Amino acid sequence: MSVPRIQTVCGYGCGSSLLLRTNIQKIAKAHDIEIEAFCGDVNTCCANDCDVIFISRELGERVKDRAKVPVIEVDNFMNKAEVEQKTLAYLESYGRQ
Fold first, then answer.
1. Alpha-carbon gap, residue 29 to 44, rounded angstroms
2. How far is CA 72 from CA 43, 48, 92, in A?
3. Which one in 25, 47, 65, 71 has a CA-CA gap of 20 to 30 Å to 38?
4. pLDDT 10s digits, 56-95
5. 61 Cβ partners below 8 Å, 6+ apart?
């Protein structure tokens, strides 16, 4: 099975997306799941090769209609429980796609 490519997205691709990427990587590692995660910006994220986009609810509205992959909106990047729940739910579904 291939390794899921997870793109975390914020306005410019170097602030909150980095925080979210780090948290998702920690979650995957804690559950012994191999992933590839990288940051992107809201203007170019739909052109990047990935399996899923994790993004804030505010910015998600800007990419949902253009994205060719699932878009997972996160209400609070600092809420570890929310990030973990959404990350693990996606990773569980990844094997069934």
1. 27
2. 17, 16, 14
3. 65
4. 999 999 999 999 999 999 999 999 999 999 999 999 999 7
5. none
